[in-house]
Specification:
The chain is α/β, with parallel strands linked by helices. It is about 25% helix and about 25% strand. It contains 4 helices and 8 strands, in the order βαβαββαβαβββ.
């Protein structure tokens, strides 16, 4: 069964970027430390990354994050989704209007202009098709940014939440939770490494 999983790295003080994020510096000042775990040689970090990417049938992201990863300083063959661990899933972007052009033409992009619920529905359809083709249960991953993940949680669209809690305090930046609707979470797993604490929760609606 395809699940909707929000998966994002966050600081100890609740930020998913450092201060002053921009297209050329998508993670803001000091925000690179949030993703140190994704490039770690620790076997547990590698396993978390590998298993998370392997279950990705489709990935949802907001327009701002798309502009960062598709920008001149964005993803390449060594720093794309999953850092080359496995194959490339379909990507679904929530946006008010599609971009005029796409740099990363080697990726499968779909642009949804009718809101986040419709984007999640489109991603679920892609993930279910990929599941059928592969014979494996694949999920929809909400990778961000923070506003997209927060909105999905508020709308009751998320089945599970995975946080990669980085051992840093950024002091400012893009918060993950801002006036979020109350949700009950059930903790399912905790994996601790020197670069992050990987937390997975089921979201109880």
């Amino acid at each position: 069964m395809t699940r909707i999983i929000a998966d994002i790295s966050v600081s100890l003080d609740g930020f998913v970027t450092g201060p002053d994020p921009s297209q050329d510096n998508g993670l803001g000042t000091g925000g690179e430390a949030l993703h140190t775990w994704a490039f770690s040689d620790d076997p547990d970090d590698r396993r978390v990354l590998r298993e998370g990417t392997a279950r990705s049938g489709a990935v949802v992201l907001g327009r701002h994050l798309f502009d960062v990863v598709d920008g001149p300083k964005g993803w390449d063959d060594t720093s794309g989704y999953g850092a080359g661990e496995v194959g490339k899933p379909a990507f679904v972007v929530v946006t008010s209007s599609p971009p005029e052009s796409v740099r990363t033409t080697n990726l499968d992009w779909t642009f949804v202009t009718t809101g986040l619920p419709d984007a999640v529905t489109a991603a679920r359809e892609r993930a279910e098709a990929a599941s059928s083709d592969s014979g494996k249960d694949l999920d929809v991953i909400l990778m961000g940014g923070g506003a997209t993940v927060g909105s999905a949680l508020d709308a009751g669209l998320v089945d599970a939440l995975t946080l990669h809690l980085a051992p840093i305090v950024l002091g400012a930046g893009t918060p993950l939770f801002t006036g979020a609707a109350p949700r009950t979470l059930v903790q399912r797993s905790v994996i601790s490494t020197s670069t992050a604490t990987h937390l997975t929760y089921d979201v109880v609606r």
